[in-house]
Amino acid sequence: MLSIIRKIVGYLASAVLSWMIILAATQLLLRWFFSTGISWADIQLRQMVLLTGLLGGVLAASENRHIRIDLLDHFGNPRIKKILHLVMSILATGCTFFLGYLSISFIISERESGTLLRNFFFGIGIPQWYIELAMPICFFLMGIFFLSSVIFPEKEDNSEEKLT
């Protein structure tokens, strides 16, 4: 199930990033050559930067390629490395679930305030909290991936091999 989620998030991140590149390039060309632009493009690009960062975080957590404290990995004893990896995964799980909880509280307050993203797409305005729903979803997905690395630890850490 987690591998299916990983693939879906990867495809979604690719689609969002592709749309960002196309939209930004179009906006740039329109401004340079025609002294005009797309009224909703800047707002949408700002929101998509947030979404791309969150989706990238989910992908990094799913592949165990997230930011680590390398100082702790320099201990020679494999047993100490496994214990430190377990502790770090537990902390990361707690932090991401807590951030997911906080983002739900944030979205509830945004929903109550009724903030609209005017001109979000082809002049259509949408409530801002629709876009912000990505925050708790992504944080909880990150937490699930971190939790899975606690419950099902890898026999050996191949994160450096994955990067090359």
Discrete helix count: 7
Instruction: Indicate the mean pLDDT.
Output: 86
Radius of gyration, CA atoms, in whole angstroms: 20 Å
What string, H for helix and E for strand, traces the elements in order?
HHHHEEHHH
Q: Helix amount, in percent?
A: over 70%
Biggest sheet descriptor:
2 strands, antiparallel
What is the domain tally? 1
- Overall geometry: elongated
Find the structural class using helix and strand composition: mainly alpha
Number of strands: 2
Name the quaternary structure.
single chain
| Straight-line N-to-C gap | 26 Å
pLDDT under 50 segments (min length 5)? 156-164
How much of the residues is beta strand, in percent? 5-15%
Name the strands of the widest sheet in spatial order.
Answer: 1-2
Note down, in words, how this protein is organized.
The protein has helices spanning 2-34, 41-62, 70-73, 78-113, 128-132, 134-151, 159-163, and strands at 116-121, 124-127. The protein has 7 helices and 2 strands. A hairpin with a 2-residue loop joins strand 1 and strand 2 (124-127). The protein has one domain (2-155). The model is unreliable at 156-164 (pLDDT under 50). It is elongated and about 65 Å long. It has a two-stranded antiparallel ribbon. The chain is mainly alpha-helical and 164 residues long. Helices cover 75% and strands 6% of the residues.
